[in-house]
């Protein structure tokens, strides 16, 4: 029997009982929301591109989500998957075939209807090496991906257009993360004719099916989105217009927010002003706090002496005073004891991790043959607060006799040193730390803790490679039955537990997000710290001062 | 004159070539892989190599440099690694803002600097003179980042006379121009003062006073025109200082010029933009110096071009 699934496990179970009907009901819209109004958001950096195949920074990530749609998305403010351009989907029992039924009547901003051919075209485009997409690697489980990646084929053989509203994917292996991959920006649907019209400049002239359509881009000054009146999701978006003002220093942006000139700080509240803002009840009331899928960690190069000795790595884990580091960042985070952040499925609440215990750390170091410690290097990014955090780590290490010299470098240089096997004994990940691409525990493994990432130029900076865990990870990811998602999460908890026994990392803290908004902004708090639409969910927020 | 100009143009081209070679080499030697930046953290090794090949970054250094020069000749500065737009387009779209800021800054520094220098020279040795010279010293030494934020806080946030950063109207231009101008004003005040003192010491000044001309007429009609010319000739050299200043000032005020573009590109190791902005700045500086040297003999006949 085939399983017919929709958004959540509960709904899919219901669908099963009803005998394969899919949930066609429109997604709920906030009844308090008033349509209309315009808001202004500021950013320090230029918007790099609005091409969904290329954009890969947290600034354009959610802008692209508002201009384009994918087959899947998440319920606003949550990490719960649900169909988006797809109306329903079905996964074959072997987990290797996934068929999506598309919504009918969805139109691109140029007026043409979106069909299954566009979905296929978009995926062929993103995986084609000529596109130079940073996301091409996410589609590795689709049949034919390797041929396209190698330039031997132009089209993914595993993607078949059954009819204009049905598309079938064949996978080389069961892949529990596949539906998440269908929700990331790289799989969002683009119209071929517009891509061909603008070529490499499509990212400056984006045309999608999203809630907003692109209206204006004045280089270096502003980007403007306007409501898409034909958006398929009735009742959305609420706002008529969003203006992104570019090139605003966060400190200047904060002053403007305080004066009521802008509505949302796109960048973080400047660290130097954070305590002042939080000490003022009126301003504090406009700050929304939320978790994010982030972990800051110290890597130890497991192929380099003395970090090739697990006891040394465990000793370092016990030497770091995480509470003090969290204080250093004005309590904008919570101490971490495992790689996964608390809001990620698979996070083990019972796990205690290594205690902060200097005496025990010293004893372990002596056991490992270093009673007097040793000299090493700690690499860190050179932007605040990372040098200060590196100094705190340096002091903690000194307390057990490890003399670490700090190499404070530009981001790209630290990344380069981490990707070189003989490059960096220790790295503080701040400023480059892992933020999940999608809310699934596997996303914290492969590139940063698995063997696949332990290659020159890779992101596994501790060069930790445990073949048994790789096999276990593959096994966990082959569990595609949503009814077994609890079992799968448990397997992942065990994998991360094992990793912590080997201690290639010191997990230090999980960063919290603080979004500051003007008093006129409406909508549930979780829309302002949306785990996927970062920093805010543009489609669902509204203003309260429209008539 | 023509031979001199020809020689100077050839020298300038050689300087620009040198700048391009040194910048290209420095960026090449940077221990950061631009392809990794483009490919992102989820890319497979094949994707990374594919991108490297397409961008020609697998070629030896001199071949890469040669290709860059060839495209440069046709005005093509390449495409940004991060933004994927043409660097020429990015620079051209931001150049007017930087030029506007430069004009504003020159007006500010001349207005403030020349006035200060003039008053100091006329009131030489008095408390006014000393106060002005200390002020000019502070102007020269104060970091522009601090000056910018200070002006922003006082005049935009507290008094509300000007907008808090941004671009568009003359009101937006005032504070960033002033921030840039204060630095130059310090220099001009000092130069103007010494130039004016020199002129006031001349014999014809004594004659003018002996003839019983009014003090105002002596200073404004006879001394000022002679004292101001050598100072004005320095503007060409200012361009170099401006090019350094706009990186800071444009970032503070959110001014959409090429300084801001450069600063963002440096943070993201976007090599084509860094190359492009460096070359455009070098070109502006070389041109400024050339102009300053060429106009000098028209202003001061004692200078001859050889």
Explain what you see.
The complex is a heterodimer of chains A (547) and B (306). By secondary structure, chain A is an alpha+beta fold. Chain A has helices at residues 9-18, 58-67, 116-127, 145-149, 178-181, 192-198, 250-258, 271-279, 281-284, 310-319, 322-328, 358-367, 386-399, 411-418, 446-449, 467-477, 485-502; strands spanning 3-5, 38-43, 72-74, 81-83, 86-91, 97-102, 159-163, 166-170, 212-218, 222-227, 241-246, 264-265, 287-291, 294-300, 333-335, 375-381, 403-409, 426-428, 434-435, 505-516, 521-522, 542-543. In chain A, β3 (72-74) and β4 form a beta hairpin. Chain A is globular, with a radius of gyration of 24 Å. Residues 1-25 of chain A have low confidence and may be disordered. Chain B has 306 residues and is an all-alpha fold. Chain B has helices spanning 2-29, 34-39, 45-54, 61-73, 87-122, 127-141, 144-158, 170-200, 203-210, 215-232, 235-253, 258-267, 271-299. Chain B is elongated and about 85 Å long. The mean pLDDT of chain B is 86. At the A-B interface, α7 and α14 of A face α2, α3, α5, α7 and α11 of B.
In short:
The complex is a heterodimer of chains A (547) and B (306). Chain A has 547 residues and is of the alpha+beta class. Helix content of chain A is 28%, strand content 20%.
Helical percentage of chain B: over 70%
Give the H and E element order of chain B. HHHHHHHHHHHHH
Largest sheet of chain A: 8 strands, mixed
Summed up, the helix count of chain A is 17
How many β-strand stretches of chain B? 0
Q: Mean of the pLDDT scores of chain A?
A: 90
Residue runs with pLDDT of under 50 for 5 or more positions of chain B: none
Query: Structural class, from secondary structure content of chain B?
Result: mainly alpha
How far apart are the first and last residues' alpha carbons of chain A, in Å? 53 Å
Radius of gyration of chain B equals 24 Å
